Amino acid sequence: MTDEPQTTDEPENEPTDAPEEAVAEVAPEAAPDAPEAVTEAPQQAGAPVEEAAAQAPPEQAEEAAAPEAAPAAPAAPEQAAPEEQLPSKERRRKARSTHTGEARPARSPAERHAERAAERKAKAVRRRARRLQEREKRTAARGRAGASQTEPLAPVHAQTEGVRKVRQGVVVSDKADKTITVRIDIARRHRRYEKIVRSSSTLHAHDENNDAHEGDTVRVVESRPLSRSKRWRLVDVLERAR
């Protein structure tokens, strides 16, 4: 048995001219109205938004209008922080390093010396004025402290005269003018052996009137240095020599 192909009476995808004619008939009529439709669409779409914004509270209205607003300008850069308080010497050095003006004209050594001298003189004047001002302040402070402190203070060590030594001896020489040599006899007991030990020493005394002579017993007293060797002075003659 053989399968015979079935045949149908319907035509297979025969082209028809009807759609083209329908498009041709509809297109010219719809073309002029297309821009109005396009323009009306945004108006119809935006109308509910505007009505909702008008009915909404102010805060919500601002939020609704925010997307349409222009983007905010970028924030201004922060101001530079002030420079640290530098010492005067550092500030002058920094000013010199950043100086961009013209260089000073060349000067001779004499001109530089004169400029330095003038600068020293100006500094001396300012220094003198400052010292006078400080002195006046100190004087005013002392005056406020009280007049009792301005009174002269008593000396710590009062002038006192010590007890002068007095010696008795025998004149052994009166040859020098206004000077006698006196022998001082000393008798003392030995500390260990308790024996009387006799010794003598001589000294030079001042005799203003040449009153004492050799062999006299005299009394002398300690005095200020009168010469290279005289530190004693004659007081009186106790006994004359025979």
Give your account of this protein's structure:
With 242 residues, this protein is α+β, with helices and mostly antiparallel strands. It has 5 helices and 5 strands. A 5-stranded mixed barrel has the order 1-2-3-5-4. The chain is elongated. The N and C termini lie far apart (211 Å).
Portion in strands: 15-25%
Number of strands: 5
Q: In CATH, what is the homologous superfamily of the domain at 166-239?
A: Nucleic acid-binding proteins
- Spatial strand order of the main sheet: 1-2-3-5-4
CATH architecture of the domain at 166-239: Beta Barrel
End-to-end CA span: 211 Å
Mean pLDDT: 75
Number of helices: 5
Contiguous uncertain segments of 5+ residues? 21-49, 69-82
What is the radius of gyration? 67 Å
Q: H/E order of the elements? A: HHHHHEEEEE
Shape: elongated
Q: Which labels suit this protein?
A:
5 strands; elongated; 242 residues; five-stranded mixed beta barrel; single chain; 5 helices; alpha+beta; OB fold (Dihydrolipoamide Acetyltransferase, E2P)
Short characterization:
This protein has 242 residues and is α+β, with helices and mostly antiparallel strands. The chain contains five helices and five strands, in the order H-H-H-H-H-E-E-E-E-E.
Q: Helix and strand layout, with pairings?
A:
Blueprint: H1 18-30, H2 34-55, H3 58-65, H4 88-97, H5 109-145, E1 166-173, E2 179-189, E3 196-206, E4 217-222, E5 230-239
Parallel strand pairs: 3-5
Antiparallel strand pairs: 1-2, 1-4, 2-3, 4-5
